[in-house]
Fold each of these.
Amino acid sequence: MIHDEKYYVEVTKNEISVKKLYDFCVTEGTGAVDIFIGTVRDHFDGKKVESIDYHGYPEMAEKILLNILKKAFGYWPVNRVAIQHRLGWLQIKEPSVIIVVSSAHRAEAFSACRYIIEEIKKDLPVWKKEHFHDGQVAWKSDEPPE
């Protein structure tokens, strides 16, 4: 976990919490809070998904998340940003990533939150192993290094 008074970043195998991140982000100067929750869906590429196993290196992933959110602070006047990403075995409907952004106004919160999730999808070293109903398994991207 990496945090200070403006940001909170955590990659964990433990359950992740909207309330914890919301409580961290809301300040007296907050007029808007944008929350993004990525959840495990029941399908991919026309196949029924049973569960997903997320793999990654928490320390490396947290540093990359920190760099992403610091860029967001540079682009928009946001108050606070909090991100949690889950590793391990997740079932359908469970949250895999939560991003909370607070700012004085909604436009900045929306823009920063959207930017952060798009950058996470491009750059975060977390790999998704999907387990399908028919017993097949597939990595969403390249398999992690051994």
Note: Confidence is low (pLDDT under 50) at residues 142-146.
Amino acid sequence: MTGKYILVIDDDPDMVETITLMLESKGCTVGKAYDGIEGEESIKTKRPDLIILDVMMPRKDGYTLCAELKASASTMEIPVILLTAVSEHVPGTRYSHADGMNTEADEYIPKPIDTEGLWKAVSSLI
């Protein structure tokens, strides 16, 4: 796993830091972005080996960014793990379970995250 570049996109700085510390402890290099637009720009700058992507974010949500990545020939092969707390927020947001089912993410991890479960998902995809 050493040397793999993983991009973490989440609007919660504490979540980004928690995931970053776990990934770095496993020998990965980590890029950070705090919303979908920033994440999109980061992907153009340096192609990640894997993306960990939050669903509910400002400017561009994770469902939209994932769908765009999977629809583009240049990024469709990059594995995407969606982090989602949507199930508990569906009644009060514009997000839905149908959005998640229609997204071609490679894996879904519920929030609050279990870092070992997340690591298993990362390991299986890269």
Note: Strands lie at 5-9, 29-33, 50-54, 80-84, 107-110.
